[in-house]
Amino acid sequence: MSSNIKVLQVIPRLGYGGAETGCYDIAHYLPENNCKSFIVTSGGELIKFIDKKKVKLIRLPVQSKNPLLIFFNSIILIGIILYYNITIVHARSRAPAWSCLFATKLTRRKFVTTFHGTYNFNGNIKKFYNSVMVRSDLIIAGSNFIFSHIKENYSEFLKSTKKFLVIFRGINIDYFDASTKLESDEKKLLQKWEINKEKKIILMPGRLTSWKGQQLFIDAINQVKIELGYEAFHVVILGSEQGRDLYKKKLIRLCEQYRLTNQIKFIEHCEDMALAYKVSDIVVSPSIEPEAFGRVAVEAQSMEKLIIASNIGGSNETIINGKTGILFESGNVKSLSEKIIQAITMDETSIKSIGKEGRKNIIKKFNVEKMCFSTYSEYKRLLN
Protein backbone atom coordinates (compact mmCIF):
# COMPACT_ATOMS: atom_id res chain seq x y z
CA MET A 1 0.00 0.00 0.00
CA SER A 2 2.72 2.50 1.01
CA SER A 3 4.36 2.51 -2.42
CA ASN A 4 1.02 3.54 -3.94
CA ILE A 5 0.67 6.59 -1.67
CA LYS A 6 1.62 9.76 -3.50
CA VAL A 7 0.96 12.88 -1.44
CA LEU A 8 0.88 16.39 -2.86
CA GLN A 9 1.01 19.09 -0.18
CA VAL A 10 0.01 22.61 -1.22
CA ILE A 11 1.05 25.62 0.87
CA PRO A 12 1.31 29.34 0.02
CA ARG A 13 4.95 29.74 1.13
CA LEU A 14 7.56 27.61 2.86
CA GLY A 15 8.69 30.01 5.56
CA TYR A 16 9.60 29.27 9.17
CA GLY A 17 6.06 29.15 10.58
CA GLY A 18 4.30 26.19 12.19
CA ALA A 19 2.24 25.20 9.13
CA GLU A 20 5.33 25.43 6.93
CA THR A 21 7.61 23.35 9.15
CA GLY A 22 4.83 20.77 9.51
CA CYS A 23 4.58 20.54 5.73
CA TYR A 24 8.37 20.22 5.45
CA ASP A 25 8.54 17.49 8.11
CA ILE A 26 5.76 15.38 6.56
CA ALA A 27 7.28 15.80 3.09
CA HIS A 28 10.57 14.25 4.25
CA TYR A 29 8.93 11.59 6.44
CA LEU A 30 6.89 10.06 3.61
CA PRO A 31 9.82 8.90 1.41
CA GLU A 32 11.30 7.13 4.45
CA ASN A 33 8.11 5.05 4.44
CA ASN A 34 8.20 4.18 0.74
CA CYS A 35 5.75 6.95 -0.29
CA LYS A 36 6.14 9.60 -2.97
CA SER A 37 6.21 13.19 -1.76
CA PHE A 38 5.39 16.41 -3.61
CA ILE A 39 5.09 20.07 -2.56
CA VAL A 40 3.49 22.91 -4.49
CA THR A 41 4.39 26.37 -3.14
CA SER A 42 5.22 29.87 -4.32
CA GLY A 43 8.61 30.03 -2.56
CA GLY A 44 10.03 30.64 0.91
CA GLU A 45 13.11 30.29 3.07
CA LEU A 46 12.70 26.54 3.75
CA ILE A 47 12.99 25.64 0.07
CA LYS A 48 16.79 25.63 0.24
CA PHE A 49 16.66 22.86 2.87
CA ILE A 50 14.41 20.51 0.89
CA ASP A 51 16.06 17.27 -0.18
CA LYS A 52 15.29 17.36 -3.91
CA LYS A 53 16.12 13.64 -4.21
CA LYS A 54 13.24 12.79 -1.86
CA VAL A 55 10.71 15.57 -2.47
CA LYS A 56 9.49 16.89 -5.81
CA LEU A 57 9.10 20.67 -5.54
CA ILE A 58 6.80 22.56 -7.92
CA ARG A 59 6.40 26.34 -7.88
CA LEU A 60 3.02 27.93 -8.45
CA PRO A 61 1.52 31.28 -7.31
CA VAL A 62 -0.67 29.48 -4.73
CA GLN A 63 -0.22 32.33 -2.22
CA SER A 64 -2.62 34.50 -4.24
CA LYS A 65 -6.25 35.10 -3.24
CA ASN A 66 -7.08 36.40 -6.72
CA PRO A 67 -10.04 34.29 -8.00
CA LEU A 68 -8.54 34.09 -11.49
CA LEU A 69 -5.24 32.77 -10.13
CA ILE A 70 -7.08 30.33 -7.86
CA PHE A 71 -8.85 28.99 -10.97
CA PHE A 72 -5.59 28.94 -12.95
CA ASN A 73 -3.86 27.05 -10.14
CA SER A 74 -6.66 24.47 -10.04
CA ILE A 75 -6.16 23.72 -13.75
CA ILE A 76 -2.39 23.31 -13.25
CA LEU A 77 -3.00 21.11 -10.19
CA ILE A 78 -5.27 18.84 -12.25
CA GLY A 79 -2.37 18.37 -14.67
CA ILE A 80 0.07 17.64 -11.83
CA ILE A 81 -2.33 15.15 -10.20
CA LEU A 82 -2.87 13.24 -13.43
CA TYR A 83 0.76 13.35 -14.61
CA TYR A 84 2.23 12.07 -11.31
CA ASN A 85 -0.83 9.94 -10.42
CA ILE A 86 -1.23 11.72 -7.06
CA THR A 87 -3.46 9.82 -4.61
CA ILE A 88 -3.86 12.44 -1.83
CA VAL A 89 -3.84 16.23 -1.99
CA HIS A 90 -3.20 17.97 1.34
CA ALA A 91 -3.93 21.73 1.52
CA ARG A 92 -2.59 23.84 4.39
CA SER A 93 -4.18 27.22 3.71
CA ARG A 94 -7.43 28.63 2.37
CA ALA A 95 -6.56 30.13 -1.03
CA PRO A 96 -4.72 27.03 -2.29
CA ALA A 97 -7.38 24.84 -0.66
CA TRP A 98 -9.98 26.21 -3.09
CA SER A 99 -7.73 25.24 -6.01
CA CYS A 100 -7.22 21.81 -4.43
CA LEU A 101 -10.96 21.33 -3.86
CA PHE A 102 -11.76 21.93 -7.54
CA ALA A 103 -8.84 19.77 -8.69
CA THR A 104 -9.65 16.80 -6.44
CA LYS A 105 -13.36 16.89 -7.31
CA LEU A 106 -12.56 16.68 -11.01
CA THR A 107 -9.84 14.03 -10.63
CA ARG A 108 -11.65 12.10 -7.87
CA ARG A 109 -8.66 12.12 -5.55
CA LYS A 110 -8.70 12.23 -1.75
CA PHE A 111 -8.57 15.71 -0.27
CA VAL A 112 -7.05 16.54 3.15
CA THR A 113 -6.92 19.90 4.95
CA THR A 114 -5.13 21.01 8.09
CA PHE A 115 -6.84 23.82 10.01
CA HIS A 116 -3.81 25.79 11.26
CA GLY A 117 -5.60 28.84 12.70
CA THR A 118 -8.93 30.28 13.78
CA TYR A 119 -9.35 32.18 10.49
CA ASN A 120 -11.45 34.94 12.04
CA PHE A 121 -14.50 36.02 10.08
CA ASN A 122 -16.67 39.15 10.22
CA GLY A 123 -19.47 38.05 7.93
CA ASN A 124 -20.92 35.28 5.81
CA ILE A 125 -18.65 35.91 2.81
CA LYS A 126 -15.46 35.47 4.86
CA LYS A 127 -16.96 32.46 6.63
CA PHE A 128 -17.79 30.87 3.28
CA TYR A 129 -14.21 31.53 2.12
CA ASN A 130 -12.87 29.88 5.29
CA SER A 131 -15.24 26.92 4.92
CA VAL A 132 -13.08 25.35 2.20
CA MET A 133 -10.91 24.02 5.04
CA VAL A 134 -13.77 21.79 6.21
CA ARG A 135 -14.88 20.58 2.76
CA SER A 136 -12.27 17.81 2.60
CA ASP A 137 -12.39 14.04 3.12
CA LEU A 138 -10.17 14.43 6.17
CA ILE A 139 -9.92 17.54 8.37
CA ILE A 140 -6.96 17.76 10.72
CA ALA A 141 -7.07 20.22 13.63
CA GLY A 142 -3.71 21.17 15.13
CA SER A 143 -5.05 21.33 18.69
CA ASN A 144 -8.16 20.65 20.77
CA PHE A 145 -8.75 24.41 20.79
CA ILE A 146 -8.95 24.44 16.97
CA PHE A 147 -11.11 21.30 17.00
CA SER A 148 -13.65 23.05 19.26
CA HIS A 149 -13.47 26.23 17.16
CA ILE A 150 -14.36 24.29 14.00
CA LYS A 151 -17.26 22.45 15.67
CA GLU A 152 -18.68 25.70 17.07
CA ASN A 153 -18.37 27.78 13.90
CA TYR A 154 -18.49 25.42 10.92
CA SER A 155 -20.92 22.69 11.96
CA GLU A 156 -23.13 23.29 8.92
CA PHE A 157 -20.23 22.32 6.63
CA LEU A 158 -19.22 19.17 8.55
CA LYS A 159 -22.17 16.94 7.70
CA SER A 160 -20.65 15.23 4.67
CA THR A 161 -17.12 15.06 6.05
CA LYS A 162 -15.76 11.55 6.41
CA LYS A 163 -13.28 12.25 9.19
CA PHE A 164 -12.38 15.08 11.58
CA LEU A 165 -9.67 14.68 14.22
CA VAL A 166 -6.86 16.30 16.19
CA ILE A 167 -3.20 15.68 15.36
CA PHE A 168 -1.02 17.84 17.54
CA ARG A 169 1.75 19.65 15.77
CA GLY A 170 5.18 18.34 16.55
CA ILE A 171 8.65 19.82 16.72
CA ASN A 172 12.08 18.35 16.11
CA ILE A 173 13.14 17.50 19.66
CA ASP A 174 16.65 16.64 18.48
CA TYR A 175 17.11 20.15 17.08
CA PHE A 176 15.41 21.83 20.04
CA ASP A 177 17.74 20.13 22.54
CA ALA A 178 19.79 22.33 24.88
CA SER A 179 22.54 19.71 25.20
CA THR A 180 23.46 19.98 21.49
CA LYS A 181 24.37 23.67 21.56
CA LEU A 182 28.02 24.75 21.83
CA GLU A 183 29.11 27.39 24.33
CA SER A 184 31.24 29.04 21.63
CA ASP A 185 28.14 29.51 19.44
CA GLU A 186 26.25 30.98 22.39
CA LYS A 187 29.00 33.55 22.92
CA LYS A 188 29.00 34.47 19.22
CA LEU A 189 25.24 35.05 19.22
CA LEU A 190 25.38 37.20 22.37
CA GLN A 191 28.21 39.24 20.82
CA LYS A 192 26.14 39.69 17.67
CA TRP A 193 23.18 40.85 19.75
CA GLU A 194 25.53 43.01 21.89
CA ILE A 195 24.13 41.55 25.10
CA ASN A 196 25.87 40.88 28.41
CA LYS A 197 25.00 37.43 29.81
CA GLU A 198 25.46 38.66 33.41
CA LYS A 199 21.84 39.82 33.37
CA LYS A 200 18.71 37.70 32.88
CA ILE A 201 17.74 37.53 29.20
CA ILE A 202 14.02 37.61 28.41
CA LEU A 203 13.16 36.46 24.88
CA MET A 204 9.91 37.17 23.05
CA PRO A 205 9.87 35.40 19.64
CA GLY A 206 7.18 35.96 17.02
CA ARG A 207 6.49 38.11 13.98
CA LEU A 208 5.69 41.74 14.66
CA THR A 209 1.93 41.88 14.51
CA SER A 210 -0.40 43.39 17.11
CA TRP A 211 -2.17 40.17 18.16
CA LYS A 212 1.16 38.59 19.14
CA GLY A 213 1.14 41.03 22.07
CA GLN A 214 4.41 42.96 21.76
CA GLN A 215 2.80 46.16 23.06
CA LEU A 216 1.38 44.37 26.10
CA PHE A 217 4.81 42.82 26.67
CA ILE A 218 6.60 46.18 26.59
CA ASP A 219 4.01 47.64 28.99
CA ALA A 220 4.68 44.71 31.35
CA ILE A 221 8.46 45.08 31.04
CA ASN A 222 8.08 48.71 32.09
CA GLN A 223 6.34 47.53 35.26
CA VAL A 224 9.14 45.00 35.86
CA LYS A 225 11.68 47.81 35.47
CA ILE A 226 9.84 49.92 38.07
CA GLU A 227 9.85 46.98 40.52
CA LEU A 228 13.33 45.53 39.94
CA GLY A 229 15.31 48.29 38.21
CA TYR A 230 17.21 48.45 34.93
CA GLU A 231 19.99 46.12 36.02
CA ALA A 232 17.84 43.02 36.39
CA PHE A 233 17.36 42.03 32.74
CA HIS A 234 17.86 42.34 28.99
CA VAL A 235 14.96 41.87 26.56
CA VAL A 236 15.07 40.56 22.99
CA ILE A 237 12.00 40.92 20.76
CA LEU A 238 12.81 38.52 17.94
CA GLY A 239 10.73 38.63 14.78
CA SER A 240 10.36 40.32 11.41
CA GLU A 241 7.97 43.17 10.73
CA GLN A 242 6.83 41.60 7.41
CA GLY A 243 5.89 44.99 6.02
CA ARG A 244 4.33 46.25 9.26
CA ASP A 245 6.86 49.08 9.65
CA LEU A 246 4.30 51.42 11.27
CA TYR A 247 3.66 48.88 14.02
CA LYS A 248 7.38 48.46 14.65
CA LYS A 249 7.83 52.24 14.84
CA LYS A 250 4.98 52.37 17.36
CA LEU A 251 6.75 49.76 19.51
CA ILE A 252 10.06 51.63 19.31
CA ARG A 253 8.34 54.88 20.37
CA LEU A 254 6.82 53.03 23.33
CA CYS A 255 10.29 51.84 24.36
CA GLU A 256 11.55 55.42 24.11
CA GLN A 257 8.62 56.68 26.17
CA TYR A 258 9.42 54.16 28.92
CA ARG A 259 13.19 54.81 28.58
CA LEU A 260 13.77 51.16 27.78
CA THR A 261 15.81 51.55 24.59
CA ASN A 262 18.95 50.23 26.29
CA GLN A 263 17.10 47.22 27.75
CA ILE A 264 15.02 46.13 24.75
CA LYS A 265 16.56 45.04 21.46
CA PHE A 266 14.63 44.33 18.26
CA ILE A 267 16.21 41.47 16.29
CA GLU A 268 14.63 40.70 12.93
CA HIS A 269 15.83 37.15 12.37
CA CYS A 270 17.92 34.36 13.87
CA GLU A 271 19.14 31.47 11.70
CA ASP A 272 19.32 29.13 14.71
CA MET A 273 16.19 29.49 16.83
CA ALA A 274 17.28 26.73 19.20
CA LEU A 275 20.40 28.76 19.96
CA ALA A 276 18.27 31.85 20.60
CA TYR A 277 16.32 29.90 23.21
CA LYS A 278 19.52 28.47 24.69
CA VAL A 279 21.07 31.89 25.45
CA SER A 280 17.81 33.08 27.03
CA ASP A 281 16.68 32.59 30.62
CA ILE A 282 12.97 33.32 30.23
CA VAL A 283 10.75 33.03 27.14
CA VAL A 284 7.47 34.95 26.86
CA SER A 285 4.53 34.33 24.51
CA PRO A 286 2.02 37.13 25.34
CA SER A 287 -0.50 36.73 22.49
CA ILE A 288 -3.70 38.70 23.05
CA GLU A 289 -5.65 36.43 20.67
CA PRO A 290 -5.64 32.63 20.91
CA GLU A 291 -2.69 30.79 19.38
CA ALA A 292 -3.91 27.82 17.37
CA PHE A 293 -1.09 25.73 18.79
CA GLY A 294 1.57 27.94 20.34
CA ARG A 295 4.82 26.77 18.78
CA VAL A 296 6.98 29.12 20.89
CA ALA A 297 5.72 27.53 24.12
CA VAL A 298 6.49 24.05 22.80
CA GLU A 299 9.96 24.94 21.50
CA ALA A 300 10.86 26.71 24.76
CA GLN A 301 9.82 23.69 26.83
CA SER A 302 11.83 21.37 24.59
CA MET A 303 14.85 23.62 25.24
CA GLU A 304 14.17 23.36 29.02
CA LYS A 305 13.47 27.08 29.28
CA LEU A 306 11.02 28.80 31.61
CA ILE A 307 8.06 29.78 29.42
CA ILE A 308 5.42 32.38 30.34
CA ALA A 309 2.38 32.37 28.04
CA SER A 310 -1.19 33.66 27.75
CA ASN A 311 -3.84 31.39 29.27
CA ILE A 312 -5.82 31.16 26.00
CA GLY A 313 -5.74 28.95 22.92
CA GLY A 314 -3.18 26.22 22.38
CA SER A 315 -0.93 27.24 25.28
CA ASN A 316 -3.53 25.83 27.68
CA GLU A 317 -2.90 22.42 26.11
CA THR A 318 0.87 22.54 25.70
CA ILE A 319 1.80 24.02 29.13
CA ILE A 320 1.05 22.40 32.49
CA ASN A 321 0.73 25.55 34.59
CA GLY A 322 3.24 25.67 37.42
CA LYS A 323 4.90 22.42 36.35
CA THR A 324 6.23 22.91 32.81
CA GLY A 325 5.71 26.67 32.53
CA ILE A 326 3.66 29.63 33.75
CA LEU A 327 0.35 30.94 32.39
CA PHE A 328 -0.82 34.53 32.89
CA GLU A 329 -4.19 36.19 32.38
CA SER A 330 -4.40 37.09 28.70
CA GLY A 331 -4.32 40.82 27.97
CA ASN A 332 -3.53 41.72 31.60
CA VAL A 333 -0.34 43.81 31.96
CA LYS A 334 -0.28 43.42 35.75
CA SER A 335 -0.62 39.64 35.56
CA LEU A 336 2.19 39.36 32.99
CA SER A 337 4.55 41.69 34.88
CA GLU A 338 3.98 39.71 38.09
CA LYS A 339 4.77 36.42 36.36
CA ILE A 340 7.94 37.87 34.80
CA ILE A 341 9.07 39.14 38.23
CA GLN A 342 8.27 35.70 39.67
CA ALA A 343 10.45 34.10 36.98
CA ILE A 344 13.36 36.54 37.38
CA THR A 345 13.47 36.01 41.15
CA MET A 346 12.87 32.24 41.07
CA ASP A 347 15.59 30.02 42.54
CA GLU A 348 17.75 27.95 40.17
CA THR A 349 16.50 24.60 41.49
CA SER A 350 12.88 25.48 40.65
CA ILE A 351 13.86 26.83 37.23
CA LYS A 352 15.74 23.63 36.38
CA SER A 353 12.86 21.48 37.62
CA ILE A 354 10.37 23.31 35.38
CA GLY A 355 12.79 22.99 32.45
CA LYS A 356 13.22 19.23 32.91
CA GLU A 357 9.45 18.69 33.23
CA GLY A 358 8.88 20.85 30.17
CA ARG A 359 11.14 18.76 27.97
CA LYS A 360 9.55 15.53 29.22
CA ASN A 361 6.13 16.99 28.36
CA ILE A 362 7.17 17.79 24.78
CA ILE A 363 8.90 14.46 24.16
CA LYS A 364 5.77 12.65 25.31
CA LYS A 365 3.13 14.66 23.44
CA PHE A 366 4.52 17.03 20.82
CA ASN A 367 7.49 15.49 19.02
CA VAL A 368 7.63 15.59 15.23
CA GLU A 369 7.90 11.80 14.83
CA LYS A 370 4.55 11.34 16.55
CA MET A 371 2.92 14.00 14.35
CA CYS A 372 4.34 12.50 11.15
CA PHE A 373 3.39 8.93 12.07
CA SER A 374 -0.18 9.96 12.96
CA THR A 375 -0.60 11.88 9.69
CA TYR A 376 0.87 9.03 7.64
CA SER A 377 -1.46 6.55 9.38
CA GLU A 378 -4.48 8.70 8.48
CA TYR A 379 -3.33 8.89 4.86
CA LYS A 380 -3.30 5.08 4.72
CA ARG A 381 -6.75 4.80 6.33
CA LEU A 382 -8.13 7.31 3.84
CA LEU A 383 -7.14 5.09 0.92
CA ASN A 384 -8.46 1.84 2.41
Report on the architecture of this protein.
The chain is α/β, with parallel strands linked by helices and 384 residues long. It folds into two domains: 2-170 and 367-383, Rossmann fold (3-Layer(aba) Sandwich), CATH 3.40.50.2000; 178-365, Glycogen Phosphorylase B (Rossmann fold), CATH 3.40.50. Helices cover 44% and strands 16% of the residues. The protein is built from 14 helices and 13 strands. It has a seven-stranded parallel sheet, sandwiched between helices. A six-stranded parallel sheet has the order 10-9-8-11-12-13, with helices on both faces. Helix 1 packs across helix 14 (368-383). The chain is globular, with a radius of gyration of 22 Å. The model has no long low-confidence stretch (mean pLDDT 93).
List keywords for this structure.
about 45% helix, 6-stranded parallel beta sheet, 7-stranded parallel beta sheet, Rossmann fold, alpha/beta, single chain, about 375 residues
Secondary-structure blueprint:
Blueprint: E1 6-10, H1 18-32, E2 36-41, E3 55-59, H2 67-84, E4 88-91, H3 94-107, E5 110-115, H4 124-130, E6 138-141, H5 144-153, E7 163-166, H6 183-193, E8 200-205, H7 214-228, E9 233-238, H8 245-257, E10 264-267, H9 273-279, E11 282-285, H10 295-302, E12 306-310, H11 315-318, E13 326-328, H12 333-344, H13 348-365, H14 368-383
Parallel strand pairs: 1-2, 1-4, 2-3, 4-5, 5-6, 6-7, 8-9, 8-11, 9-10, 11-12, 12-13
